[in-house]
Hints:
By secondary structure, this protein is an all-beta fold. Helices cover 0% and strands 37% of the residues. The strands form eight sheets. The protein has a seven-stranded mixed beta sheet with strand order 1-2-3-28-25-24-23, with no helix packed on it. It is globular. The N terminus is likely disordered.
Amino acid sequence: MKPRSSLVLVSAMVISSGAIAQQIRTGQQAWAGYADEKPGQRWKITVADLPEPNEAEAVGNGPHVIDRPQNAWPQAPAGYKVEIYAQGFEIPRLMRTAPNGDVFLADTGAGTIKVMRGVGADGKAATVETFASGLDRPFGIAFYPLGPNPQYVYVVTTKSLYRYAYKNGDLKAATQGEQLIEKLYPMAPGSGHSTRDVVFSKDGKRMFISVGSASNVADMDTHPEEEHRADVLEFTPEGKFVKVYAAGIRNCVGEAINPTTGELWCSTNERDNLGNNLVPDYITSVKEGGFYGWPWFYMGGHQDPRHKGKHPELKAKVITPDVLVQPHMASLQMMFYPGGQFPGMTGDIFAAEHGSWNRKVRAGYEVIHVPMKNGKPTSGEYEDFLTGFVTPEGQVWGRPVGVTTAKDGSLLVSDDGSRTIWRVSYTGKK
């Protein structure tokens, strides 16, 4: 697991984001920070590139978010325009688009679910309403049953799952939410990761809820509070627990169903304090019954030195994720682009990278694009798509969290740093 000093930049012919040719940074050139993140820049991180653990490198470098400077604006590839779509939220996080095109937003800080509709002459949302309120840190949102006419909106909070009666076009919940799950498995209030996402399988028969760990890397053998955490849990649509669908996923923040293959995917925050370049966050398909390593191992069957000698029988079972991204980027919501506006990107992945706190040189604070073909990553690379949330001096003003599409196919990005929803549209002008 030694660094490969011989690896260099590799050129790749790619037609994407208005670019004909791009360079892919790989090997030791892949370990970089915010100053290297530019729209169209491509990256490929592999297990072979991982350095040795170095706990001495661990730093606390969390951002102090400043007000957006007057000359600061998110940067997209040539041919795309970025506008403010909505503002005035407390902590805007995950977003999901209803079948009729309305965009539902979890304003986690306010404990509300908002609905945004349309685009006014000023480019902003024509309508913003509160659909539900009084929730404990809501995050995940899903519509059920799947298809053009859902009957319910599901909302998952830190501790519980609710569903609200719904018909297309509703801007306010007509009734109180029905609590389907009172308590999502052992969890001390406020401990560990608080985000929970919810999606339904393509056939609508299975409900998947992701629950992050209570700690960075506590041994699950001796910490009962980690029971049914760092897992994706399967339930019936009525909220009956079925099983642990997949385990060892430290914090699967954003879930999505691959429209081509029907597979569950998730965007994951990996562990901290093993060094600046360990362990990469990742975006991956989630195998039923799969084990992704946490807390004893990480990708490629590497043992976490803090658990030396533990569970050797699990080493060969550790699944290597599909797409590795920069360590500590805090990969949050992901989505498969449904088409409608961005050329050549239908079926590709967009993911929000909230930004590092445990790395000497900041990384993340952007939205990335993962090229796909026939429902699979083309070669495990990703590219920077929306950047510019960090000033040249390293001050952070924006932190992307959620990604979804508007009715016209434009991309919406929630940013809980500037408390803004950004709209990215394709103009074709370069």
